[in-house]
Amino acid sequence: MDRHGQVVALLDATGTFFEPSRTAFPGADGADWARAALLDPGAAGPDGTWLLDFRCFAIARPGGRWVLVDAGVGPAEGPAAGWAPVPGRLPAVLAAAGIAPAEVETVVLTHLHEDHAGWSAGADGQPFFPAARYVVQRDEVAALDRTDPVWDWTVAPLRASGQLHEVDGRHRLAPGITLLPTPGHTPGHQSVLVEQADGARDVLVTGDALVHAVQLGNPAVAYSRERDLAVARASREELLARAVERGALLATAHLTRPFVEPA
Q: What's the rounded mean pLDDT across residues 44-55?
């Protein structure tokens, strides 16, 4: 069966965030939270806690090859271990989906936060996907502090192996797959547009341009950990407008449902 263009959700981990949702999104009002509860009821934990998934996506390519979007929280000793629910289970989830690491031709890193780069390499410094190029925005690498654990875990080993590919702005990765700059959460954050053939719906992989359903219901709601709140809001509004215009589904990293309609 030709799976070209198919987008597969890969759940690496599930857990509770280290701060309550109303602390993470202090500008949201009662109507925003009521709307969020309808859009993603699974995110509401006891006593105001925020329950979230940590998800990657695989895009099928011709010849049994794959593009992976993001690399999850990683193993127990990975850089996200201080706050995310590690170890992630991406290797087992890939195997269950019939995807071997050697079949991944490209890994798109939406940004260089620990929970999106955890399976990029291992503690031995070896890239987890041996045949892949890892694609990230040049601005994202330039803004990353050398003391950030992702530098030594991801950037340094991938540069050493020649697998780190830095791009500038909008970038056509392959036929039907386009990288879209969506800065704000981080300086070089990017999302991924997957254009489908044969009448199937396009898919927009959001990365952390959208981290909670409260921002789906009201994209003006800021996340306290966004690097630039105003730029992040503009990126989110543009991304959601693009999804509505194209009739695209959103593929989300942290909502408790992988595919959602743009509100």
A: 96
